[in-house]
Design brief:
The chain is about 45% helix and about 10% strand. By secondary structure, it is an alpha+beta fold. The chain has one domain. A hairpin with a 2-residue loop joins strand 1 and strand 2.
Length: about 110
């Protein structure tokens, strides 16, 4: 993912991520880029309309719930959505029984087509 796009703040108003958080973000981004091409395309499509998407994805990659969760081709990344009844169970079922890909980004339902 493009580190130059979007805000660098971590969601708690801090201007920087910790060293460990950056490591988690980089690992997650590499997994998404190399093993989850449809998820990556979805993130890019949403980010083209709202640069805040990059920050939301990063927060999910460091484990903050209710921000970002995705699965594709047996790969799972992000943190579960917990504020919706049975969302964690639904996400596990999607990953287990197969969807081509699922990409959940807080505040972003359908932003329209590419």
């Amino acid at each position: 993912m493009n580190k130059e796009v979007g805000t660098a703040t971590n969601g708690d108003g801090q201007g920087r991520w910790s060293e460990h958080e950056w490591w988690l973000i980089e690992q997650g981004q590499q997994r998404i880029k190399t093993k989850m091409p449809e998820v990556y395309a979805t993130i890019c499509r949403y980010a083209a309309k709202d640069k805040n998407v990059w920050r939301i994805v990063r927060m999910g990659l460091i484990g903050r719930p209710d921000c970002f969760w995705a699965c594709e081709a047996g790969q799972v990344t992000g943190a579960p959505f917990t504020r919706f009844a049975r969302a964690v169970e639904a996400s596990r079922l999607m990953a287990r029984f197969g969807c081509a890909h699922v990409c959940m980004i807080a505040g972003h339902g359908d932003l329209g087509g590419a």
